[in-house]
Amino acid sequence: MDSFELNKIAGAVLGTLTLTLGLGIFSEIIFAPEAPAKPGYEIAVPDGPSEAQAPAAAPSVPIEELFAKASVEKGANVAKRCGSCHNFQEGAGAKVGPDLYGIVDRPVASAPGFAYSAAMKAHGGDWTPQALNTFLANPKADIPGTAMAFAGIPKEMERADLIAYLNSLSHSPKPLPTATAAAAPAAPAAAPAASGGDKPAAPAAAPTGDAGQPTAPK
Asked: To 10 degrees, what angle do helices 156-168 and 129-137 make?
């Protein structure tokens, strides 16, 4: 290949590059994008109540009302979630967690032979039906530091059924509290006894004659 052929090839390549560059510059001149007057994107926010103005969540039903319709049989099914960590039979002993036979109204952290966490030991009190309801809803929130890894039972009716079942695990199950008993007003306090100079005055003696004998009315 002689120098003339090489010059033609080089010229063709150079011409192609020049044409491509020229077309790019020309297209930028014709189709130059216009910058927006206000950079960024406008996000449409729907009109409505803010988070602070959002309606409050409906109050939960008192657990005493749910106890009235709780089912021991359904509670036994709920308890199957706990079977990998707890025993429910009398005398079966602890597993990962303490045995739950007779748990209702039992003092907290009192199952023999089980090593409770420091948080559970310090909690104190008894496992009343109401205390069990609060704990089972969210164990770690109720007793921070508890070793129990269970996340809790968010459904109120399931907790009521489970507590009804746990209450049945006893030789003499106690009646679960009712809404009527929970709402009953306290008996009024007795009036304090009179003291010292506040004693009631004795009735006046009947008038007497000169001889000290009572006189008949005239």
From this structure: 130
Sign, Cα dihedral of 133, 103, 161, 153? positive
| Angle CA 158–156–144, to nearest 5 | 100
Domain span holding position 113: 63-182
pLDDT at 209: 47
Which domain CATH number covers 157? 1.10.760.10
Taking the C-alpha atoms of residue 94 and residue 88, their distance in angstroms, rounded to an integer, is 9
Please indicate, yes or no, if residue 47 is contained in any of the structural domains.
no
What is the total count of domains within the chain? Answer: 1
- Classify residue 104: in a domain, yes or no: yes
Closest by CA position to 69, among listed 177, 161, 206, 6: 161
In this structure, is the dihedral angle defined by the CA atoms of residues 109, 112, 118 and 122, taken in order, positive or negative? positive
Q: What is the DSSP-derived secondary structure letter of residue 80?
A: G
Distances (CA, A) of 100 to 21, 27, 54: 84, 81, 41
Is the CB of residue 114 less than 8 Å from the CB of residue 98? yes
Q: What is the CA radius of gyration of the chain?
A: 43
In a domain, 169, yes or no: yes
DSSP H helices, 91-155, are 118-123, 129-137, 139-142
Which tens digits make up the pLDDT trace of 102-157? Answer: 999 999 999 998 999 999 999 999 999 999 999 999 999 999 999 999 999 999 99
pLDDT digits 0-9 by tens, 154-188: 999 999 999 999 999 999 999 999 877 555 555 55
